[in-house]
Amino acid sequence: MWRNAIYGLTIIALGLGGFTTLSLATDGFRAFTAEEARRLAARENPAPVPAMTLEDARGGELDLAELGDRYVVLDFIYTGCHHACTTLGASFHRIQEALPEDVLGERVALLSITFDLENDDAARLLEYGERFSANPEAWHLARPKTREDLDRLLRHFQVVVIPDGQDFVHNGAIYVVEPDARVAGIHDIDAVDDVLAYLEPRW
Amino acid sequence: MTRPSTVWAGPALLAVLVLTPLRLWLEASLIGHMLVQIPLLVLAGALMARSLPEVWRIRAARLDEYGVLGLLLALFVVVYWLLPRNLDAAVLEAGAGWMKIVTLVLLAGIPLGLTAHRLPLLVRGVLWVKGTAMFFVMGWLYREAPDRLCNAYLLGEQLMLGNIMLGLGAISLAAILALLFFGPPNRHRQVVAGETLDQSQLSRAL
Which of A90, B111, B126, B128 has its CA at a distance of 20 to 30 angstroms from the CA of residue A117? Predict the structure, then answer.
């Protein structure tokens, strides 16, 4: 009898332990995918962007952590992309057009960073900007200087790029970086309204 | 009790899974990762448990009379690694990848190998039926998910995985129905008889 009671209690203890482990592993059953996990982390524990200087496609350099006292809407692209990045480009265009004149570039800036170092030089980035009528004062186009910088950046933002035949597939998103350089929001590539709703009371 | 040829089956399977390019090849696809590599790692552990000294089985029997502890532990470990975020981590982070192999072998395969034969028939039946239902539910989820659940895998593959899981669920359901309508095949009756004999021998050994 005692043996059975102890056996039963052990089963309950193991069940509770397993349940607790799964709960911890899913942030309290709120994030089952890596994408949900990084979005949850950005909302609850915003982490600063890495200190890194990027090449500005319009010449000069761009310090990622020193983009001034403004909000930065950021995305990762490659100009040869015809799926997610087209949506992202269109979303950025809509955000740019929706921002009031005194906010655009002053309180909110846009930044697209390429992860295709082989193909995307300054000329192609500018072409991409033209395709989406990027305002040169507000929408920056940049590329990491080295492969190491790029890897560090992608790891930091948990961007996963996988080849898909000739193309790339990546977990595209719109990132909102606070004036204090922390990434406080990760949104779907077409969630223009969410991004604007987040920014409007703050700019 | 264990034939010498089977002593090496578990370690050999594990070595093939872990040390050869097969590992990268299986992990390159969602289907290979979820439906082939993870089950085979558990199987490798279970085979290794069979070649452990007899004293291990006796200890396991004393600790886990009905095999429920071993089953629960294995289920938790497998479910943990089937979470999409952990599948991603296992592919994208080397540490997590090795952790997956070690835990699936040591905490899922070996406990199952040591205790699964003690599970009462009722528990096995419930497990089979619930497992079949899970294949349908998960298959449907993977099939219908509009977004990628794993960052490391393509959407098309997720759809295919869903279809395969639905297919496996259907096969399993057909087997359950066949068992209900036609009863167990003769071969199975003998296996069950052999197992009860095995269990009575073990309990006598205790």
Answer: A90
